[in-house]
Write a structure and sequence with these properties.
Length: 159
């Protein structure tokens, strides 16, 4: 895991190798940073759960456990929200286009998969994906999620 010398109290940046066991170190570093940045513990909990799902999906499905690939994790705190961006060089995959599982079906009739992304969609306050094509093998996937923790920023319930 490499850290970026441009890290600040409101910005976090780590590059990790695509290994599931790297996640624990990421969580320790992110927790230390979030305390300094003033992120509430319940918000950090949700951020870590979302990040766990997205990180493991990149390692398992994007890189197929190739342990020498890199994943960049960046986080920023501003205006009572945390924005987290993951960047990888795996084949293109837009999780926003993945079909939602039918949770009305009995468990024994449900196909395997999809519940993790459903959790991400429902827990993140905002979720975005984009692919950056560079004309070389260095094209990247970027997924960003936002978790609000300021009551003034939470979307109001529909009337």
């Amino acid at each position: 895991m490499r850290s970026d010398p441009t890290a600040s109290p409101t910005r976090f940046r780590k590059t990790l190798l695509s290994r599931l066991e790297a996640f624990d170190g990421l969580v320790r570093n992110l927790t230390d940073w979030s305390v300094q940045a003033g992120v509430p513990a319940d918000t950090l909990r949700d951020v870590v759960l979302i990040l766990d799902e997205l990180f493991s999906n990149i390692v398992i499905h994007g890189y197929h456990h190739a342990s020498d690939r890199e994943i960049l994790v960046e986080a920023e705190v501003h205006s009572q929200q945390v924005d987290v961006t993951l960047t990888d060089h795996a084949p293109a995959f837009n999780p926003l286009l993945a079909p939602e599982p039918d949770t009305r079906l009995p468990l024994e009739e449900r196909p395997i998969g999809g519940l993790g992304l459903l959790f991400v969609r429902r827990t993140a306050d905002r979720l975005q994906y984009w692919r950056v094509e560079s004309g070389t093998d260095a094209a990247t996937n970027k997924i960003q999620f936002t978790k609000w923790y300021g009551p003034t920023l939470r979307p109001s319930a529909p009337a």
